[in-house]
Amino acid sequence: MAREISGPITFTTGGRRVPAYLQDPLRWALAGEWDALAAGAHRARPDDSGNAVPPYVPRDQDPLIRTRLTRAADEGGLVLVVGDSTAGKTRACFEALRAELPEYRVVAPAGGADLMAAVEVIDRTRTRCVVWLDDLESYLGPEGLEPGLLAELVRLRIPVLATMRHQQFEIFAAPESAPAAGTEHARAATVGARVLRQLETVELARVWSTGELERAGKAEDDRIADALAHHGPYGIAEYLAAGPALFQEWHRAARPGGHPRAAALIAAAVDLSRTGLRPPYPLDLLADVHEPYLAIAGGPLLRPESLGTALEWATRRRHGVTSMLVPTQDPSAWNVFDYLADHTDTPVLDTTWHAAFQHTADTDELAIMGFHAHRVAPVFAEKFYRPAAEAGRADVMNNLAVLLAAVGRFEEAERFQRRAATAGDSDAVFNLAVLLGDTARSDEAEAAYRQAADAGHTSAMFNLGVLLGDTARSDEAEAVYRRAAEAGHTDAMNNLAFLMDTAGRQDEAECLFRRAADAGHLDAMNNLGVLLADAGRPDEAEAAYRQAIDFRNVNAMNNLGNLLARRGRPDEAEAAYRQAVDSGFADARAHLGILLEDEGRPDEAEAAYRQAADAGHTSAMNNLGNLLANAGRTDEAEATYRQAADAGHTGAMHNLGNLLVRAGRPDEAEAAYRRAADAGHTESLNNLGNLLAGTGRLPEAVAVYRQAADAGHTSAMNNLGFLLARAGRPNEAERLLRRAADAGHINAMNNLCKLLASVGRLNEAETAYRQAADAGHPGAMNNLAILSAEAGGTDEGEAGGSTGDAPASRRR
Prior knowledge:
Elements: E1 12-13, E2 16-17, H1 20-23, E3 29-30, H2 36-39, H3 62-75, E4 77-83, H4 89-100, E5 105-107, H5 112-125, E6 129-133, H6 147-155, E7 159-165, H7 166-173, H8 191-196, E8 202-203, H9 210-217, H10 222-230, H11 236-240, H12 243-252, H13 260-275, E9 281-282, H14 283-297, H15 307-314, E10 325-327, E11 333-336, H16 338-342, H17 350-359, H18 363-374, H19 378-390, H20 394-406, H21 410-422, H22 426-438, H23 442-454, H24 458-470, H25 474-486, H26 490-502, H27 506-518, H28 522-534, H29 538-550, H30 554-566, H31 570-582, H32 586-598, H33 602-614, H34 618-630, H35 634-646, H36 650-662, H37 666-678, H38 682-694, H39 698-710, H40 714-726, H41 730-742, H42 746-758, H43 762-774, H44 780-790
Parallel strand pairs: 4-7, 4-8, 5-6, 6-7
Antiparallel strand pairs: 1-2, 3-5, 9-11, 10-11
């Protein structure tokens, strides 16, 4: 509007002053001309020309990074590469950017607030650029990258390329900030966590693959050749950045004659970094914090050097790459080489947590420090969270509530959770629902889950589906699972598939299992195999199981063994079972025992059964009892059956009863049968009836047979019908015998014939005898001949056999 302007111009946008380096996008570097060190790549030892950036060795993940970057350039969105420090994340992203988008401008904001300003500048100027966020954790938060800003980046079709160290990713994405919800832990209730949950990360391995090493071998660079020759268990990029060498030198320094004070200063900086306190760290802070580390190492006995000498040693550049304490713009404050922090796993000292707390009053920084302390120092986590929670941070209230609930302080937890929920934090509503469920307030939990689900919280949808399914509201559960599945929740896909399978909708179940399996859900891969096996599609089932096994799914190993055993491939089945056994899966030991017994290897079978039994597998105890009984080792069999019975195995109670009958101990057998019968074992009811009838206790036998018959046991129907016929109650006897005969019980068919003949219904008896003979009853034709010859029947019948039945069948 002014047409001509002389002098400097300062832009402000949205009430926010735009830093000078962001004001003119034409001053931002072109990706094709950008420098790797400026991008944040670790320096390597300079070559003869002074170049500290070695030639790039292509990584296995390059195609995936580049495909996602070009898609983000078309559609907008964030590409995140995650890996250990010095894994090569920044370099891989830098090379992808130069290769795919060389004409794009690169904007690298200094922090979260600058990121928001940069997006507004890009929107206003319509500059074609890439947002570069090396160390993404520095940008996450309500004043930086949050879900709304990420959505704006997508709307504007701005590609974002970011890196994050594994340690930081785990702190933000999964700080175990929620108690168990019966099916899964709640996600971290932070702005950063909500952003990370929307991303599909690219994992870059620290240790290089065979293919990557082969490509490195073709590089004409002495530094890479040296790394190939000496990297040992470390990655090539890791070795080039001198990480292992500096780590070892640091730890060697804490000795007499070494540099113990320098080692303690570095330890102080490392642990301050691990508390989440942002660098740089002033020298006076390092001087205060390092004293306990020096004391632990030996204190005055080490004859520590002066502070000045220690600082000079700790800040000296090694191998032309980096120093352990890294200089910053403030000459009296220091950062620390991140490799050292990422590879340190000793507990942070309480004095260091306390010093970090004393050093800052910034609530956002305290919130981050709370994340760092959440799992490893909950007392300090509470101290860090409280100021941010009192300042109104809903996400921190939620995390504080989770922390309190974890130590049983439910009333306090609920108060903070409700405050966070009232502030509109859907994660807090979800965690409130979890807390209410854990404190047996299921109606309130359901209402809270519904509220969070209505706000789009997929984990709430999933947990609500579980709750509805557990309360037999399958239609509602299906609807909720579908919403979560459509939003990409793989656990919901898996559970919905189970629901469809149970409802007889196998085609839908298969489709859902496949979707979840394709998304990497290991249980879904295994469950798909179960469904395909049940559908009589063994080749496809085997393929599904093997896919799951590639990801070490032990259920799939066991199920593959079952499938191969049924298909007559015992050697392969044994291998699958043994793989599962080696992974600690007790069921597989039991099934391996069955296979070995079937293969005529009883000694090995006994050993497998005993291992499974020792792990508490009750079916293995029962099967071991069967094996011992069949081998005539009745005392051992009895002891084993009793062990399984005491653990609640009804089949073992039944088999114990059979063993005691054969041993002539009817009173003990009756007690065993009654225990099994009380647990719902109908075969034991029938055998108990046989035992009672055989000892003349007919009224009790009739009552027991009737109970088993009402439960659908055909032998009990036959035995009760036989007793009623002899007691002169033919009408009742006929009804029972017909039920058993219609169910295919051939003894009942024959007994029905005799009953009909005995009451003069000869034509019906003849027809029934012929049906029994066709069904395979060995005496039916003989009885038919007698009927024809004598035009009458006998008053003898057939009961269901003795109580000394064979051991109950084994189950895979």
